[in-house]
Specification:
alpha+beta; 5 strands; Rossmann fold; 2 helices; single chain; three-stranded antiparallel beta sheet; two-stranded antiparallel sheet
């Protein structure tokens, strides 16, 4: 599951929720937007090579040689019926 849904970046989530009346229905889209902002500020860092990673709100972000952004979800487990990040 994406880190955003597992409790990552609670301050940003509160800010977004305060600005929109129905933030919960756009949760995944908000995480994608936060990552888009992160990517535009860290684009050169990702161009450094295949080992360059960003911990985004939707997972680990990297860039392939074709300059395409790739995302790897964070592993999580179920603990007493709730999803927990590893």
């Amino acid at each position: 599951e994406m880190p955003w849904l597992l409790g990552a970046n609670p301050e940003l989530k509160q800010t977004i929720a305060a600005g929109r009346g129905n933030g919960a229905s756009y949760t995944r889209l908000n995480a994608l937007g936060a990552d888009a902002f992160l990517l535009q500020t860290q684009f050169r860092r990702l161009q450094a090579g295949p080992d360059a990673l960003l911990r985004g709100n939707t997972g680990l972000l990297s860039m392939n040689p074709q300059l395409q952004i790739q995302r790897e979800l964070v592993l999580s487990t179920f603990d007493e019926g709730a999803v927990q990040p590893r």
